[in-house]
Design brief:
single chain, alpha+beta, Antithrombin, Chain I, domain 2, 6-stranded mixed β-sheet, 4-stranded antiparallel β-sheet, serine-type endopeptidase inhibitor activity
């Protein structure tokens, strides 16, 4: 099994559980109150018709994003792990404020339902499904908006985010104290993910030009229906490439009660390992294991129809399972990835997010995503968070006062003014280095 299968199997596991969704937040709303539903129209429950459409779109986005990341030469030989739903949720809230080509591109990349009712009710309904609770596992999701306190966002946008995505607003002073604002957001993410996702927004990611940050946080912890005995775990070789192996702890479940959903094709073995649950949503990890070291056999089945066929072909039978313990932590900055997937306008000077503020002054400066997963004999703990950072293209209110922030490498010159002679020239790459 190639090392990159670790990332693939966890992606498949998240897809199997519908990935993970946006949820309620208890932060105070200080910009605008949530509007009441129109007469005769209620926020949908778990059976809302749009859930299937949103779930299918999220899964396809997950397949597309996996391929985009895996195809990057910088990802060769590296683990991959992310939450498609965390990214979809944050960007769906962003999409609600997009207009024109900007919105068309985001909607296409995310495979969002074009019908507004299906899209919004789908996210709200899926949120209800995934947050209804279960005594045997923990699954929490949350969305939030973090707005510049002096910037006038449209009440309609704020209300839409709160009503359909449970994303309430907290006002922050990005313009006056961007660092304190960043720390506030990061603390919220840490709280929502049991401290598994730290420093989602890295230093310098928000600045006085930031006007809005849209966040999603996800946390899951569950135990296997059939747990592994730690006494059976042994150090064994794990092939990372032909002729190359590393030593890792391998768990074993080979007894007569090792009954799992199993299927195989000419090139692939498929295993479903369920998590214990009560009345909540059933969760499981789906593992796609190539019979040879060629990961292509697993990656080429990452489409909705093929994966559905494989899941239908699973039959419960005894399987001798040998599976690695592992912990992964990943970090992604996604503007170039999402641009390559078909939504470049949102990151450019041509971005149109008039649905947020009534102007075309906002653009996405970054989409950051961090994920964590730990797989052990007992079960799985996983968390992820996404931040969409919206900056302003120019100073608001017609203020043309320039902002000069020398918070990155720069070149400097010492010049004799009368003659213009350069006496000294230098570059500061790290002010703390000699």
């Amino acid at each position: 099994m190639n090392r990159r299968i670790i990332g693939l199997l966890l992606l498949a596991g998240l897809i199997t559980i519908g990935c993970i969704a946006a949820g309620c937040t208890d932060v105070p709303q200080t910009t605008s109150g949530q509007s009441a539903p129109p007469a005769g129209q209620e926020t949908p429950g778990p059976d809302a018709g749009g859930v299937g459409n949103v779930s299918a779109g999220n899964n396809q986005f997950g397949f597309d994003l996996y391929r985009q990341i895996a195809g990057d030469p910088g990802s060769a030989g590296k683990n991959i792990f992310f939450s498609p739903y965390s990214i979809s949720s944050a960007l769906a809230i962003t999409y609600e404020g997009a207009r024109g080509a900007t919105g068309d591109e985001i909607g296409s990349v995310l495979h969002l339902p074009q019908n507004e009712t299906l899209r919004r009710s789908g996210f709200a309904g899926l949120d209800a499904v995934l947050n209804r609770g279960d005594e045997n596992y923990t699954l929490r999701t949350a969305n939030a908006l973090w707005a510049e306190e002096a910037y006038p966002f449209l009440p309609a946008y704020v209300d839409t985010a709160a009503r359909w995505y449970s994303a309430n607003v907290t006002n922050l002073d990005f313009a006056g104290d961007a660092e304190a604002s960043r720390e506030t957001i990061n603390r919220w993410v840490e709280e929502k993910t049991e401290d598994k996702i730290r420093d989602l927004l890295p230093a310098g990611s928000v600045d006085p030009m930031t006007r809005l940050v849209i966040t999603n946080a996800i946390y899951f912890k569950g135990t296997w229906v059939k747990q592994f005995d730690p006494a059976e775990t042994t150090e064994e070789e794990f092939r990372v490439a032909p002729g190359e192996a590393v030593r890792v702890p391998m768990m074993h479940r080979t007894d007569e009660d090792a009954i799992y959903g199993y299927a195989e094709t000419d090139n692939l073995q498929v295993l479903r390992m369920p998590y214990a649950h009560g009345n909540g949503t059933e969760l499981s990890m789906l593992v796609l294991l190539p019979k040879e070291d060629n990961l292509t056999a697993a990656e080429e089945v990452l489409d909705a129809e093929t994966l559905a066929d494989l899941r239908e072909s699973l039959t419960d039978r005894r399987v001798r399972v040998v599976f690695p313990k592992f912990t992964l932590e990943t970090t992604y900055s996604l503007p170039s990835t999402l641009s390559a997937m078909g939504m470049p306008t949102a990151f450019s000077g041509d971005a149109d997010f008039a649905g947020m503020d009534g102007t075309d002054r906002l653009f996405i400066s970054d989409v950051v995503h961090k994920a964590f997963v730990d797989v052990s004999e007992e079960g799985t703990e996983a968390a992820a968070a996404t931040g969409v950072i919206m900056n302003i293209k120019s100073a608001p209110g017609g203020d043309t006062t320039p902002v000069f922030r020398a918070d990155h490498p720069f070149v400097f010159l010492i010049v004799e003014e009368d003659s213009g002679t350069i006496l000294f020239a230098g570059r500061v790459a790290n002010p703390e280095s000699a």
